[in-house]
Amino acid sequence: MNRFSIFSILFFLMIGMGLKSQHVINFYIPACPHTSGISEVNNNLVNIFPNPANECIELKFDDNFHKISKVKILDVTGKFICDIDIRSYNQEYAIKQDIKQLREGIYYISIESETKTELYRFIKLQLP
């Protein structure tokens, strides 16, 4: 039972304009051991602020900054937008990135390290 998720669907059968009966159907869907596509993580490798942002975002990295090999911006479909120069960090392991050229929408910061790639979401707002 621990490897399965339980879902309940509530069906309402309507005859005419009134609710005549209600049925509950329970079924099991096996847990998927492998995922695919873009998945989002929420740990403390990097903090992005402000989020949402209009002109600039700041990426503040934790102590594992030296393990990062590449940082880039992707759109919501996973399409490459630009690289972020990780050599331009300050003493607090923070990088400022200009995002004025981006259209309003949802974007991802892709961070590649020695062993994995992590994605962090941010929102670009277009303020008047």
Q: Main beta sheet, described?
A: 4 strands, antiparallel
Q: Provide the CATH top-level class of the domain at 46-124.
A: Mainly Beta
Structural class: mainly beta
Number of beta-strand segments:
9
Unreliable spans are: 1-19
In what range is the share of β-strand residues?
over 45%
Order of helices and strands: EEEEEEEEE
Rg over CA atoms: 22 Å
By CATH, the topology of the domain at 46-124 is Immunoglobulin-like
Shape-level CATH architecture of the domain at 46-124: Sandwich
Looking across the biggest beta sheet, what order are the strands in? 6-5-8-9
User: How large is the count of helical segments?
Assistant: 0
The termini sit apart by 53 Å
Output mean pLDDT: 75
Outline, from the CA principal axes? globular
Proportion of residues in helical segments: under 10%
Give a quick summary of the entry.
The protein has 128 residues and is mainly beta. The chain has a domain at 46-124: Immunoglobulin-like.
List keywords for this structure.
128 residues; mainly beta; Immunoglobulin-like; 4-stranded antiparallel sheet; 3-stranded antiparallel sheet
